[in-house]
Known about the structure:
This protein is an alpha/beta fold. Helices cover about 35% and strands about 20% of the residues. The longest helix has 16 residues, at about 160-175.
Amino acid sequence: MAHITASVYTSHVPAIGAALDLGKSGEPYWQPLFKGYEPAKKWLKENPPDVIFLVYNDHATAFSLEVIPTFAIGTAAQFKPADEGWGPRPVPMVEGHPELASHIAQSVIQQDFDLTIVNKMDVDHGLTVPLSLMYGQPAAWPCPVIPFAVNVVQYPVPSGNRCFQLGRAIRRAVQSFDQDIKVQIWGTGGMSHQLQGPRAGLINREFDTAFLDQLIAAPAALAQKPHIDYVREAGSEGIELVMWLIARGAMNDIEPGGKAPRVAHRFYHVPASNTAVGNLILENA
């Protein structure tokens, strides 16, 4: 059977992609950030997945404000990098895994979660920046990726607990797939940031640090955090952190008898384009 080997958590700031694409990663402003991801890149080389299930949010690229699915799974064989207004990023085509994606959709929907099945869509920086941070600039992404888009843009958005329970359903779905493959689940977005209004530029290091601590040690309690806490403490875009709870809910220790995961890497940096950046890797015991 397939199994989830690890969960990876990372921010997906669009300016990070631009810095890489324009050759600015060695500049003094960006160098500390990219240096902080070097251990994660090394870990990924030593622990390659067969498939990545990547949880992210679309930024009105594949889904306009006319139609907004709460949860959408990409089941196509390929996904093009999106043109977000200044041309597509110069990154490889994203290869999907239609068989596993369709199996997960079937299983999760039968577990009473409503998913939107997407057979064609472009993927924006929410998905490609995490791949760039973890893989650098390869000629092709080393493994297939299943895009899983979550609405954290237009209210109402799913609760942290809904996301956490969805992660549990995804874990069961992966484990029922009849191929012996290693799957990593990535939760992306965040950390604290606000892009508009009087609080634009808000960063809350204390909140972010506490979130990481709790994500590791007490995820079920963290899943009960209400939306207003994210907005108040982490900024209007801090709500993206509920997507990390999907990845955390898919880990072995959430089920009875499961052992706590091993922290393979933890990194936090501010600022990156007025945004706090977090990176965490948890290995299943």
